[in-house]
UniProtKB/TrEMBL annotation:
Gene: truB
Organism expressing this protein natively: Halalkalibaculum roseum
Family annotation (NCBIfam families): TruB (TIGR00431)
InterPro entries linked: PsdUridine_synth_cat_dom_sf, PsdUridine_synth_N, tRNA_psdUridine_synth_TruB, TruB_C
Name of the featured protein: tRNA pseudouridine synthase B
Protein family according to the UniProt entry: Belongs to the pseudouridine synthase TruB family. Type 1 subfamily.
Taxonomic lineage: Bacteria, Pseudomonadati, Balneolota, Balneolia, Balneolales
Length: 244
């Protein structure tokens, strides 16, 4: 079995290192791409396949359609590096709204319940983050996720109104920081490990401050040392590969 190519040995394409349409991407490469809102992660994969005329492409960590920010795609032999990239810490900026919850824990589904939120203070949120959302924590993955139950993605079951027991998972929250709080809106910076659901963090934070909450916006700003500010836009990819 071929060994994975370390990410530091792959050509990494970004704003500072633009891709060459003549390169043989089957030999392995990584693309830093800034995912637009409403695009699924697989939409970006399909688009890059069209750009470089190669099917063997994978991404190193799903972003939900409502989320934006850094998505790293690997091509050809570089797909063996995906697990290495996935293991790196990730940074996000999330927009959380208190006082209401949804089945998906984000704005992709309709509000299903409401609760009081006038009592929530910045100090209360800071205390909850310090005591309950720092270091190793346990999360229960949301029903609206790509995790599978007996081979079926959970989100497909959720859309049919079904709910199944999910195995709690341990994740790591390295750092959180309140960037802005104007009740009921919270802007929160989170640095976390692989497998962390920011949607679940938002939902659990609402419970922790005796209310409800859901995620109304999310941007992934980094994966390891790779930054979204260096990532290529879809428009730039089009200009390089398709607009001829």
């Amino acid at each position: 079995m071929a060994r994975a190519i370390p990410i530091d040995k792959l050509p990494v394409y970004s704003k500072q290192n633009l891709p060459d349409p003549a390169f043989d991407y089957s030999q392995g490469a990584a693309f830093l791409i800034s995912k637009p809102k409403k695009w699924s992660s697989f939409d970006v994969v399909k688009h890059l396949r069209k750009c470089v005329d190669l099917r063997k492409i994978g991404h190193a960590g799903t972003l939900d359609p409502m989320a934006t920010g850094l998505l790293i795609l690997c091509t050809g032999k570089g797909t063996k590096s995906i697990s290495e990239i996935q293991s790196k810490p990730k940074e996000y900026i999330g927009e959380i709204t208190f006082g209401a919850s949804t089945p998906s824990h984000d704005a992709e589904t309709e509000i299903e319940d409401r609760a009081e939120f006038d009592h929530i203070t910045r100090e209360q949120i800071e205390k909850a983050l310090e005591n309950r959302f720092s270091g190793q924590i346990i999360q229960i993955p949301p029903m609206y996720s790509a995790l599978k139950h007996n081979g079926t993605p959970l989100y497909k079951l959720a859309r049919k109104g079904k709910e199944v027991k999910r195995t709690p998972r341990q994740v790591i929250i390295y750092e959180t920081k309140i960037l802005e709080f104007r009740n009921p809106q919270l802007t929160l910076y989170v640095k976390c490990s692989k497998g962390t659901y920011i949607r679940t963090l938002a939902y659990d934070l609402g419970k922790a401050v005796d209310s409800l909450a859901h995620l109304t916006g999310l941007k992934r700003t980094s994966i390891g040392d790779f930054q979204n500010e260096d990532a290529l836009s879809i428009e730039k990819l089009n200009a390089i590969f398709l607009d001829k």
